[in-house]
Amino acid sequence: MVDWRTRASALLPELSAVVERESWSCHVFLSELWQLALEAHRDGDREVLGRVYGFAHWCFRQPERFLSDASVVSFYEHVFDEWELRDEVAPWLPAEVVDRVRPLWEWRWPKERLTEVDRLLAQSGPPGRNAV
Predict the structure, then answer these.
(1) Which of 84, 120, 122, 125 could bridge 90 with an S-S bond, Cβ 3.0-4.6 Å?
(2) Domain residues for 33?
(3) How far apart (Å, rounded) are the C-alpha atoms in residues 80 and 82?
(4) Is residue 65 assigned to a domain?
């Protein structure tokens, strides 16, 4: 299995305390990663957002399903939980991620919210255009 902790430590020093807790799984880290993304969205910090979404997408693309699945359920499933940030979040989501996480959104949300997310994703341009 890929050593996600080494990559996370190098890319996201802000979360080193979480990475260093050996007893905590990547699910805990990815949840904390989303909290860092929320702060960065609120602060307009594109540099941090690039690192956050870059790491989440790296996990998503791993051939071992464990990290990929973890990124879906512990990060991407929750990206629209802070509804007021939806316009800022949508451009950071690659199409391949959306395709895989959308069934989870369908299960969690009312039709109106899903329709709004679909509209935002269609407007956001090329998938992941802001990704690093």
Answers:
(1) 120
(2) 4-123
(3) 5
(4) yes
